[in-house]
Amino acid sequence: MKTTSSIISLKKVYKEYLLGDGSIFTALKDINLDIYEGEFSAIIGSSGSGKSTLMHMIGLLDKPTRGEIIVNGEDVAKLNDNQTSVLRNSYVGFVFQQFNLLNKLTIKENILLPAIYSKIKLDFDPDQRADMLMEKFGIISKKDSFPNRISGGQQQRVAVARALIMKPQLILADEPTGNLDHKTGNEIIDLFEQLNITERITIVMVTHEMEIAQRTGRRIKVLDGEIISDKK
Amino acid sequence: MKLDKELYLLLKSAFADFRRDKIRTGLTSLGIMIGVFSVVILIALGLGLKNYIQQQFESLGANLVMILPGSGFSGGNGPAGLAGGAEFDEKDVTNLRKLPNIKYIVPVYVRSASVSSADTQKKVTIMGGNEDIFPLINIKAESGELWTKSDVDKKAKVAVLGNTIAGDLYGKPDNALGKTIRIEGLRLKVIGVAKKIGNQERDGAAFIPYTTTFGSLNPKKTFFAIYLGIADQNVVNSVKADVQKTLVKRYDKDRFSVTEQSEILSSINQIFAIINLVLIAIGSISLIVGGIGIMNIMYATVTERTREVGIRRALGATTRDILLQFLTESTVLSLFGGIVGLMVASLVVAIVRNWFPVAINLFAVVLAIGVSSGIGIFFGVFPAKKAADLSPMEAIRYE
C-alpha cells in the first residue's frame, strides 16, 4: 500500500526505568519509527519485548525518557499532561484486549464518552455519529444495553465505535482479539481491514499472533526494546 | 449542552456506583447523616429553649420593671447575683408610690412551700402581692374570683390557685373552689382558680395577699422584689432613674437593681447563644468523623477504580475531569447523608414540638446542606487528587 504523510514519528526514542536495586532497565532503545496515513500495521513481539511500551508511546499514554515523538509537527514529549490529554482525545482511538468499557454506562454513552471529554468544538454531531457507527457495526439494537449484557464480539465492536467517534487520525488496537474466540476475532480484524481499505483509517495493532499480523500491510517486530524488523 | 451531558454522566456514574454497593453507600452516608442530624437537633433545641424562655417572659406582661436584690439577673451571674441584696419592705412601696408614671406597684413575696388539701400535699410557689399583681402579670380567673384591695387591707385568708396546682390538689382545677388549703399552718380559702398561662411557675403558684404573709410565713415583713407596671414604654427609662434615686436613699446602690424584662431577656439570650455554639461545636465533631469516613471510602474507591480512571484518561479525560468526577461522587454521597439527616431531624422536631417549642430555622437548613456539601468537597479532594494524579498508562494496566 502506498502511503502519504507520516502521522506520528518517533525519533531516537528511549524509555528507561530505574529499578529498585539502582540499575536501569531499558524498555525501548533507539526507536525510530514513522506511521503513515492510511497504513494498517502490526507491532509484533513476544511478551516483555517492549511492544506494549511502544504502543503506549504511540498512543501518548506515556512519555519517552529521551527522544522525540512528533505529531502534527509538534514534539508531544514536551506537552504537559492536560495538553497531552486534549491531543490524545482527538488524535487517537484505543481498542483494548479487555474491551475496557464502563459497565455503568449504556453502550451509546460508552461510545459518546470521548466526545464528552473533548475540549474542542466538534465539526460533527456526536449523537448522530454514534448512531451511525452503531448502525454500521450492527449494535444499534443494543444502544441502551449495558456492556456486561452483550457478547464479547459485540463489546469489541462497541470499543471500535468508541475509538472512531472522534474521527481520530489513528486507531491503536492492543491485542484486540486476545479475549475473543477465533471466529469473532477474525470478524474484528475483518472490520479493521474494511475500515482501513474503505475509509483509509490508519490502524496500528499490537499482537503476538502471527496469523493476524499477516493480514496487515506492515509488520514491525520488536525484541528487547528494539525494532528488529519492519516489513511492508 | 456538553457540560450538561458531562454532569449528567458524572452523576449517573456516581449513582450507579452507589447502587452497586448500597450497604457501603448507606454506612458512609450514615456518618454525615448522624452529624447533620445532631447539629440540626442541637440548633433546634437551642432555639426551642430560647423560644420557651421568651414565652415565659412574655407571659409576665409588658412594660414590667423589676426591682430585685443584688445585681439581679443582669450581672451575668444568674441567680447568684441575687445573694446579699436588699430586703425590701412597705416603706419602699410607700416611697415609690410618690413617683409619677407608675401604673402598678406590686410588692412581691416569693418562696416555695408545701401546700396541703384535705387529702394531699404538694409543692407550691407562694406569690404574695397586692391586687395589682393580677393585671400586671396577666392572671385572669377561670373560675371563682381574684381577691381585691379590701382583701389585702383586711389581711384576708384567701388564695387564688394557679391552674396546675389546683388540678394537682383536687383532681380538677374547678374542684378547688371554696376549699381550704394549708400552707405551713396557715389556713386559706380558695376563692379563685387562675386560667392556665403556660408558665410552670405561675401555673403552680398560690397567689395570696402580701399582707396575709405577714405572720408565720413572713415575720420580717419583707419582700423579695417589687414589680412596677409602667404606663408607657417611652417613660421606662425615666421611671428607672427615679426609682434608682428613691431607693439609693435607703440602700447601697450595689444591693439592688432596677431591671426591665427586656434586659433580662437579652442577657439570657446571650447565655443561650454561647451554650448553642458549644452544642454545635460538639455536634460538629460527629460531622468531621463522618467526613473522615467519606475520605476513607473514597480512597478505597479510587484504588478499586484505578482501571476505570485509566480508561477515561486514555479516552481523553484530563486530570481536572477525573478530579471533578471523584469530587462529584464524594459530594453527592455527603449531601445525600446531609439531606437524610435533615429530614430525620425535621421529623423529630415536628414530633417534639407538641411538647416543647423546638424549631428548625433557615440557618439550620442552610448549615446542614452547606456543611455536608462542604465536607464532601473537603474530604473528597485528597482521594480525588490521588485519582487524578494516576498515570494513565499505569492505571489502564492495573488489574
TrEMBL record, chain A:
<comment type="similarity">
    <text>Belongs to the ABC transporter superfamily.</text>
</comment>
<dbReference type="GO" id="GO:0016887">
    <property type="term" value="F:ATP hydrolysis activity"/>
</dbReference>
<dbReference type="GO" id="GO:0098796">
    <property type="term" value="C:membrane protein complex"/>
</dbReference>
<keyword id="KW-0547">Nucleotide-binding</keyword>
<dbReference type="InterPro" id="IPR027417">
    <property type="entry name" value="P-loop_NTPase"/>
</dbReference>
<dbReference type="Pfam" id="PF00005">
    <property type="entry name" value="ABC_tran"/>
</dbReference>
<dbReference type="InterPro" id="IPR017911">
    <property type="entry name" value="MacB-like_ATP-bd"/>
</dbReference>
<feature type="domain" description="ABC transporter">
    <location>
        <begin position="8"/>
        <end position="232"/>
    </location>
</feature>
<dbReference type="InterPro" id="IPR003439">
    <property type="entry name" value="ABC_transporter-like_ATP-bd"/>
</dbReference>
<keyword id="KW-0067">ATP-binding</keyword>
<dbReference type="GO" id="GO:0022857">
    <property type="term" value="F:transmembrane transporter activity"/>
</dbReference>
<protein>
    <submittedName>
        <fullName>ABC transporter related protein</fullName>
    </submittedName>
</protein>
<dbReference type="GO" id="GO:0005524">
    <property type="term" value="F:ATP binding"/>
</dbReference>
<dbReference type="InterPro" id="IPR017871">
    <property type="entry name" value="ABC_transporter-like_CS"/>
</dbReference>
<dbReference type="InterPro" id="IPR003593">
    <property type="entry name" value="AAA+_ATPase"/>
</dbReference>
<keyword id="KW-0813">Transport</keyword>
TrEMBL record, chain B:
<feature type="domain" description="ABC3 transporter permease C-terminal">
    <location>
        <begin position="281"/>
        <end position="392"/>
    </location>
</feature>
<keyword id="KW-0812">Transmembrane</keyword>
<dbReference type="InterPro" id="IPR050250">
    <property type="entry name" value="Macrolide_Exporter_MacB"/>
</dbReference>
<feature type="transmembrane region" description="Helical">
    <location>
        <begin position="358"/>
        <end position="382"/>
    </location>
</feature>
<feature type="transmembrane region" description="Helical">
    <location>
        <begin position="323"/>
        <end position="352"/>
    </location>
</feature>
<dbReference type="GO" id="GO:0005886">
    <property type="term" value="C:plasma membrane"/>
</dbReference>
<dbReference type="GO" id="GO:0022857">
    <property type="term" value="F:transmembrane transporter activity"/>
</dbReference>
<protein>
    <submittedName>
        <fullName>ABC transporter, permease protein</fullName>
    </submittedName>
</protein>
<feature type="domain" description="MacB-like periplasmic core">
    <location>
        <begin position="25"/>
        <end position="245"/>
    </location>
</feature>
<dbReference type="InterPro" id="IPR025857">
    <property type="entry name" value="MacB_PCD"/>
</dbReference>
<dbReference type="Pfam" id="PF02687">
    <property type="entry name" value="FtsX"/>
</dbReference>
<keyword id="KW-0472">Membrane</keyword>
<keyword id="KW-1003">Cell membrane</keyword>
<keyword id="KW-1133">Transmembrane helix</keyword>
<comment type="similarity">
    <text>Belongs to the ABC-4 integral membrane protein family.</text>
</comment>
<dbReference type="Pfam" id="PF12704">
    <property type="entry name" value="MacB_PCD"/>
</dbReference>
<feature type="transmembrane region" description="Helical">
    <location>
        <begin position="271"/>
        <end position="302"/>
    </location>
</feature>
<dbReference type="InterPro" id="IPR003838">
    <property type="entry name" value="ABC3_permease_C"/>
</dbReference>
<feature type="transmembrane region" description="Helical">
    <location>
        <begin position="27"/>
        <end position="49"/>
    </location>
</feature>
